[in-house]
Q: What sequence folds into this?
């Protein structure tokens, strides 16, 4: 599992950079063009730009963990990612009434993967040699 740690962190950081950059720099596009985002109106440019910048911040921490692979940094980065992804999954799992069954399945698949990947990487992070 330790050989998958860096690639896993890179994937997590890339997701954060794409979502964060899109949301920060093109908030209306993110709201209008990403299926399921507009299920909970109203749109707020302020909120979306704040979310985008915060998401980029998590991406920076996860990218730093991928670069340096220092035990404490990797653990903190994964826990920060999980603090978002667990609550994001929980929200969507309980707010699917009246939504498209197809998009609901896609949404739940991606949100559960966003929990499972960092959770699966945590044991490898704990076993990293302290530097």
A:
């Amino acid at each position: 599992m330790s050989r998958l740690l860096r690639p896993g962190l890179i994937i997590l950081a890339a997701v954060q950079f794409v979502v964060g950059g899109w949301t920060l720099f093109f908030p209306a596009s993110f709201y209008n063009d990403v299926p399921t985002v507009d299920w909970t109106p109203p749109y707020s440019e302020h909120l979306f730009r704040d979310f985008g910048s915060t998401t980029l911040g998590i991406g920076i921490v996860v990218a730093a963990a991928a670069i340096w692979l220092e035990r404490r940094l990797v653990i903190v980065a994964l826990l920060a990612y999980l603090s978002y992804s667990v609550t994001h999954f929980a929200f969507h799992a309980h707010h699917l009434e009246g939504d498209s069954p197809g998009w609901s399945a896609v949404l739940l698949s991606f949100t559960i993967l966003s929990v499972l990947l960092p959770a699966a990487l945590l044991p490898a992070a704990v076993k990293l040699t302290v530097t």
Summary: The chain has one domain: 2-126. The helical segments are 5-25, 27-33, 45-68, 71-93, 101-126. The chain is about 75% helix and 0% strand.
